[in-house]
Structure formats: C-alpha cells, structure tokens
Amino acid sequence: MSSPRFPIPQGTLDMLILQILSLEPAHGYGIAQRLEQISKSVVQVNQGSLYPALHRLEQKGWLKAEWKQSETGREAKFYCLTLSGRKQLATEKRSWARLTGAVQLIFDEGN
Amino acid sequence: MKRLLNWFRLRNLESDLDRELKYHIERRVSDLILSGLPEPKARRQATLELGGVTQVQEEVRDIWLTRWLRDFAYDLRFSARSFLRSPSFTATAVLSLALGIGATTAIYSLLDQVVRRALPVHEPERLVLIDWKGDQATVNAFGSYNLMSYPICRDLQVQERFFEGVLCRAAMTISLSTGGEHRLAAAEIVSGTYFSVLGVNPALGRLLTVDDDQAPGASPVVVLSYDFWKTQIGSAPDVVGRKVLVNQHPMTVVGVAAPAFRGIDVGEVPALWIPAAMSAQAIPGFNGMLDRRTKWMQMLGRLRPDVTLAQAQAGLQPWFKAMLEEDTRRAGFPRITAERRQRFLASTLEFTPAPQGHSVLRRRLSQPLWVLFAATAVLLGLACLNVAGLFLARGSARDREISTRLALGASRGRIGRQLLADGLLLASAGGSLGVVLAPLTMQALIAFLPRDAAANALQSVIDTRLLLFAFLVSVAAGVLTGFAPAVQAGRGSLISSLRERGGTAFGGLRLRRIIVTAQIAFTLILVIGAALFVRTLAGLMAKGPGFDTSSLISFGIHPLRNGYSPSEATRLVRRIHDEIRASRSTQASAVARIQLLTGGSWNNLMTIQTSQRIITDREVHLNAISPGFFATLGTRIVAGRHFDERDSLPVSEGGQRVAIVNEAFVKRYFGGRNPLGARIDYGTGPDVRPDIEVIGVVANISYRGVREEREQAYFPIGRSEGFYEGANFYVRVHGTSEAGFQSIRTILRNADPALPINYLRTLDEQVSRSLNTERMLAALSGSFGTLALLLSLVGLYGVMSFVVTQRTREIGIRVALGATRFATVWLVLRDALVMIAAGIAIALPCVWALGRLIESQLYDVKSTDPATIAVAALILCTAALGAALIPAHRASAVNPTDALRFE
Lengths: 111, 903
Hints:
The structure holds two protein chains of two kinds. By secondary structure, chain A is an alpha+beta fold. Chain A has one domain: Winged helix-like DNA-binding domain superfamily/Winged helix DNA-binding domain (Arc Repressor Mutant, subunit A), CATH 1.10.10.10. Chain A has four helices and five strands. In chain A, a hairpin with a 5-residue loop joins strand 4 (63-69) and strand 5 (75-81). The longest helix of chain A is centred in the C-terminal third of the chain and has 28 residues, at 83-110.
C-alpha cells in the first residue's frame, strides 16, 4: 500500500461531510470520491463508516436527502445541507479553530 | 421521538438504504473496471472497501432505532405473529382486559365528575362549606341540605381574619323568557360575593358584585351561564343590556360567566345567576331574605391562605356564641322552650372542605358509585387474573420452545424481553379496545341517572389518568405472568425439559390453581353483590308506591312563577281542575301541594294532644290535598272519613281544622289505639295549641320514595291555598295515557298558553325514576357478576383441561387397571371441587366485611342474607362444575391403549 496515513480523528468525519456538502449537494458515492481525494493526501477514511455517518446526520436534521438523477443517468440519493446543518458546520468550524488555536498556543509556549 | 417514527416506516427505510448502497457499489465497480480490473475482482474490491454491505446496513439500522428498540420491534412482530396463530387465546385475553379496563375507567370517570372533581375556580382547595351544627330555631326552611339564613352569610362576610370572603347560594327553578315563550330554567340565587369569592371571570360584560346585592328588589340584574348564552341565545355578542323575564319580572343581563364555570353543583347546572336581593322576585311568595329564622341557602367560605380550616373553625366560635346570644334578644326571635333555647345556644359552626362545591346529586350518588367502582376494580383484577392464567397456560405450552432457545444460548434477559413484548402487546390491544368501550359504557351509565340532572350536567368524558392506570395494571399483569414461564423454564434442568416428549415438565400448575381459586373468590363476591342489588330492586318494584299506578298521570304547574298572584293562581288551579274533572277521559283527579316520589317532602315535627301531650320524635311528612286524593290514588281509608269540600273552607266561614294520618303514624304514636278525634298541630313549642282534629286514617303510601315508610299527615288544600309551591295534579284516566296527555295539554293550553308545564308523566314513570339508583346498581352489578362468572369459568375450564392432558397417562393406567368411568370423572371433578370450595371459603369473610359498605343501599335484605349467599354460591358451583365436567368427561373417554402408547 501507499505511504502510511494517520486515521481520521474521532468526530471529524461528520464535519468533513458537512463541509463537502456545503459546497454542493452530492450523493454518497460522490462524497466518498471527494473523501478519497482528501484521504489520498492526508488522512485515511474508512468508506464503511460513511453511510452510517450520513444517516446519523440526516437523523439529526442537519442533512436532507432526495432521490435525483445522477450524472450517469441513474437515480441516486442526493444529500444537501439543511439550515441547521449549515449552522452546525459553522459552530464546528469555530470550535475546531479554537481547539487548534489553543493547541498551537500550548506548543508556542513550550518553545 | 423520531426513532419511534422510524419504527413505523422501517420497510421504506430498508429499501431506500438498499438502493443507496447498490448505487454506490455499481458506481465503484464500473470505475474500477475502467481502471482495468476484471469485473469479479472489481466487485470484490468494492465490497471490501465498504467493509461489507451487511455490516453497513446493520450499523445504519442501529442509527434509525437504538439497538434495544430495534430488537424489541422484532420481538413485537414475533409476538403478534404468534398471537395471531392462536386467535381464541388472543380474543379471550384481549376481551377480558378490554372489559376490565373499559368498565373501570367508565365508572371512575363518572365518579370523578360527580364526586371528586374540584370546581374550575381559583384555588378551590381553600373553599369550605359552612354548616350550622345544632338547632337554628328555624321557623321556615326550604331547599336541600346544609341550609342557613341569608343574614348569617352577611355576618360572616365581615369575619376577614379568617375568610377572604363568604358566599351563599340557593338552587331554584324559575320561569324564564328571553323574548319568546316561558320556559323553566335552573337558576342559582347568590350573594353579591359569589363570583369574587370563587374567583370566576366573565366571558362577556361583568359578573354580579356586592353592589347588586344591597336593598331587596333594587337590582334587577342577572348573569347568564356560558352554555345557556351559547345554546339558547346563539352566542349573541350584544346580549349584555338585554332584558329577560324572570317569573315575569324584567331583569337586565349584565354579563356571561366564563365557559368552564357551571355553578357549584355538578347535578344542577344553572342557566343564570340572580342576586339574593332579587329573591322575592325569583321565588314567588318569598320575603324571608332578611329573616334570620328562614334557612334556605348553602354557604361557602374562602379561607385566607395562611389560615387552616381548624383555626378558622375554632377562631370563629367566640364570635358565633356572642351572635347567638344577641340573636335571642332580637325582636322577632320565636318563643321556644328553655330546652330548645339551650340547644340553640349550644350550636356551633362546622366547616368541611368543599373544593368540589355543594351537590345533592353527589350526596345521593357517591356511595352507589363507589360501590360500583369497587366492583369494577374487582372485575379488572379478575380480568388480569384471567390473562395471567391464559399466559401461564400458553407459557407451559411454550416451555419447550423457551428451553430450546435457552439451550441454543439465548440469555434469560433476551427471553424475558420477548415475554415483555407479549404482555405489552396484549395489554395495548386490550387497552385500546377498552378506550373504545369506556365512552359507550359511560353513556349507558348516564342514562341510568335522573334525566333532568344528568342531561346537561354530566359528560361522557373519559378520565385519562385512570385509563392510564388501568392500562398499566393490565400491562403489569401481562408482563408478570409473561415472565413466569421464563423463571420456571430455567429452574428445571434444560436437558430434562427437552427430553420430555409429549407433555411438559412445567410446574406452573400450582400457580394456576391459585389463580383460579382467587378468580372464584372474586366472582362469588360480585355474584353475591349482584344478587343483593337485584333482590333490592325486585323487592322495591314488587312493593311499589302502595297505590295502583296504572293509567295514573301526574303533572305540575307553578302559576306564581308566571306573574300570577296567589288568589289568581288559586282560581286558575280550580278552573283547570274543574275542566279536567269534566273531561271524558278522566276517571278521577285530585290536586296536591307537594309532588310524590321525587325525593323531597314537606315535613315538620308535630305535637299530638290526646289524654297526654306527645311531641313526635322525628319529622312527620306532610302534604295538603284536595278531596278525592285518596280515591284517585285508590288508597284505602282505614278508619274515619276522607276530606270533603267543607273541610277546605277557612275556619271563619264555618270550616274546621282537620287532618288525616297514615297507619304508620297511628302505629308509632298511638300504639294501635283509635286516633280519631285526637288533636295535632305543627311544631313543638309550648305555645303550640293542637286544634287540628284527626278525622281519618289512611293506608301507607310512598311519599319521598318507594323505599320509605314514614309517618304522614294530610291536610285539606285550602280555598285560599295560593299554591306557593305550585300545584301537582293526579289524574286517573280512561284509555291510554297518551290520550290523557293530549287532553291535559289541550286544557292547559286553553287555560293559559304561556304557562309552562313543570312535568307531565305517568306515575309508572315517576316510580321508575325514583328507582333510578337502584336500577343502576342492579343492572351494572348484574352484568359485572355475569362477566365475572364467564371469566372465571374460562379460567377453570382452561386449568382442568390442562390437568387432564397432563394426567392422560395416569388416567390411562387407572382405566387399564379397572377404574370405572365414574371414578375417572370424580378424579378430575374432585380437583375442581377443591378449588371451588377454597374460593368460596375465601370469599365469604370478604362478603361479610364488604357487606356493611352496601347495607344502606339495600332494601328488605341483609348483606349477609343466607338465602342470597347460598343461591349465589350454588349458581357459581353449578356453573363451575359444568365447566369442569367437559374436561372430566374427556378424561373418562381416555382409551388406555392410546394413552399408554405415548410411552
């Protein structure tokens, strides 16, 4: 296999999915491909955990799904962000920024 | 919540997920093929990347429902399927639960409405009923119970240390016209403080205030009830300011009360409220508002938040004592004996909590309703026992299944959950059916109550709290008994229970015997109760009112409420009576001051003067009647004579004061000696000079109700009667009562088309109305008893069948060794007899203990009446033995070769 990649931190997958869907609606495979691109370069995403995550986010009301024609002409289930999903993404981004900022601060102090 | 919703659309979700994953795999496979992989390899890699389709599906399902909930859903589905496979078991169990839950909830809902519900007013728990304990030195009284005079209410209103306010009220029927014809309406005559003390708000306009209740006759205003405004005035928004006629007196509507508020008596919902200051207009011929010796109103007080009932009661006594002293010195205080004066001065005020207000209906119905509620509770218990028995039976049949599952490694908890699902499913089915049954039962119940009281006052609204409670009880019963097989299953060794071939090794038989014994005990209690109430009703119906009711009609009018003066009223009654007598359909007719068989009476203590002076030790029931009254009713004059026209003349015109007493009166006060010529009079004081001569003795007839036989005295209705209480006609007709009604209606319409008829009905109906409560008790306890009997028979039959199946081998051996048919039947019946006998032995002490609670509802039969108990026990025994005989017969038909071939 290719060079070792570190596994995706717990809870980050949801945020990544929200981020991907904030750009445009996509179906599960599309999101998987996008994740694949990310994971090729940086982190390793287990595709098996994608669908449970999608359904969990839908259950929470952050995602909305509908069956639409995909680029291949077949029907696919497209997910898009709801308003509360958008808010959630913003919140997660903020807290992520604060977390990394805080970690950075600690590192800086050590220097 | 969303998860529960998911439950119901699982199938959709599943197919959706299926499509979604399929799409993913197809896309991945075609991409991989494009990158050069052969198809089978591509397909394997795509699945591998996903980590297995089934695993993903499982994980997603866990998100839809939590794990536990999901498995439970499967359990429920499994339970439902297995229930549908045994429809008779399911139907019996569901139906018993539905009946138990439905009946209990219906009775309790009625009980709650009539007896327990607090008034929809501000902080009802601070309301207390104020009652006078002792002698009020009353001269004049009318109304139901807990009566006091109006001035006392005003006195108490200023006792601000204990009360935030005090109100008084009297229920009254008035003649009301809102523009069209005159109709009778229920009214509450109230003090000006009424609404403010209760804390009721207006829906429209304003409510009565203290200013409306000052000088007598000065404030002709009324407040309408919301219901009356809605149904009779069509919710007219401009109703405030309109004039209505109350007994022909114009009064102005000033407002409409809040929708929820329906007066303080659940049995008598008023159409309007009239200030006490207008009582002379609202009650024809009444002018006792300011009289301290006229009691006619009930009084409620609102305690201050920081004052307890006991504090207020104790704190007011000094003031009350002083007031009593002052009262005796007041002008117009009646001359009374020293002894009675003592009793007057020793009076106290007594407070009782009155968050539910004051109600005559409650007083009459609360005990019967509690009795019925107890009966339904027993019935619910019985239903639960029945379900428990059925579950045990089913459990023992499933013993092998459960053992197998345990052997295959199922945990005890897993199997317990399956059984929980069983219980829950059954209870919900029974509960939902019960919810459907309860309102129907309640409507039937309300139909038993006196129509005028129940029609607008009570609703068939179900009490949800109790419904929930009954539901939970049945779930608990289902679950507990559902668990029993699980517990039992683990006890014996798995291997032995699996090795067992035809029968089962399940030892739940003892538990089932106990259940059936308890069922028989419960049933006997209900059957005895039913028998007692049926005997009571039958006894009262057989007794009747003491006169022939066939083709006897009665009706009442109240001319004074329609603007007649007393002398005009007398003339009108006379004219109507003449016309009725002249009518071809009339056999005989008479007029009485007080209506018979309504529960009410005119009564008074009497003084009797013969060679000595006696004062009656309890109230004598009185009535004033026209000559021919007893002839019309067909009552025998035992001695002396009936009244004639001369007796109605005033003394000044040559008449004399005469009376007729009944046999009960003679028996109690004359000890069988001849009463004719004795002198009597109302009242007991030293100033009473008996000068009314007893000229006749009449056979006993019912007055207040069929049940009672009290001392009665009758006086001739005077020529200047005035008919302050209205006039009640008794007419015996030729031909059908319908024709009689027609001719009476015509006569009344001709006399005065605007005069409302208070009532017009046959005496048969009047008698049956007066037996409403007894009929309700008999009918309901009878049906509960029958239901109980059915339930326990099913239980007994089930157990005995089970026993026979289990002992087939033993019976086969016995038969093979030469046991007779009779011996085999006896073998089984003996088993049943033990349970029946034990059940009866448990029930009898309970009957003895419970009997005292219903004693007051019975007539002519004791709650421990041996004959009734014996008959009930006999019925139960016969039915139970019958149920046991079927399996016993089956046992006797056992063919030894077949039975032993199992070996």
